[in-house]
Design a protein that fits this description.
Elements: E1 5-6, E2 11-12, H1 16-40, E3 64-72, E4 78-83, H2 86-102, H3 112-119, E5 128-137, E6 141-142, H4 151-174, E7 208-210, E8 213-215, H5 218-225, H6 229-237, E9 241-243, H7 246-250, E10 257-258, H8 263-269, H9 273-286
Helix pairs in contact: 1-4, 2-3, 5-6, 5-8
Length: about 290
Amino acid sequence: MNFPIISSERVDLTSDLKKTPIIQRWTLFIQELLKKALEAVKQPGFPRKNFQLDRNNESQLTNKSGFYLFTNIKTGRYYFGESHNLAQRKGEYAYACREASVNKKISGKISQDILMAILEQREQVEDFIFLPLFCMPKFLFQTLKVNPETKEQNRQISDFLRCIEFPILTELLSLNDPLLINKKATSLMEIGNKSGGTPQSGQANKPVQFNNVSFESVSCAASALKLDRKTVRNYLEKSMGSFISDNDWKNWNPAKKVTLTDIERFQNENPEFSQRLKSSARGYNRHP
């Protein structure tokens, strides 16, 4: 099998009704594709040089979103992830790995476990490959009406990709494979999941609640409420909502519990929820 598989299918992100069947279909397809890729990279004839971290103008990753396998050919350790910009993600990994190897620095959006192994010379940069599995040109995503170059479009694409990534990672983690680098079902391979911003941003993957409705993460709340993540964190800082413990999330009333795959149901059942929250925020600003 040749990698990556490049899709020509259009994806409508403006309608959850149209998005749901694609998520289910792509999840199953990419799950099988990952299994085939893990077997393929073990074969003696696998063209590893085509996927090493060196810059490759024929990588077919420019302006493409999708899923990838980051793996060490010799040790078999691997990481499964997604990105709205695969070329940029590969560049981030290449930079971070070389910083660890050459300058002995731990930096960048990549697992500290990998970087420490490189820094301590237990693993070599040249043994890692970035294998794109399934991708599609960004212009095939129909997003809500925004400037195509804005972060909001990227967020919409990322949220869609996470809906597919999450169940695949959840199953992988349940197998307790010692070669799997992923430690939890998140979208970024980053140190502590700290992406900067407000003091709350390091807790992006913790569940939150607003008006007794819980959301599995800040990203999930942002998608369900049609807000950006910064606005959601600002609401949390104003105590309009709060982070909740994993145990509270587990025991939350299922009817008032929203995961990434529940967003369509929540929006259909609560069409005014987001507007009421915005009104509360305006009231808060008028009366600090």
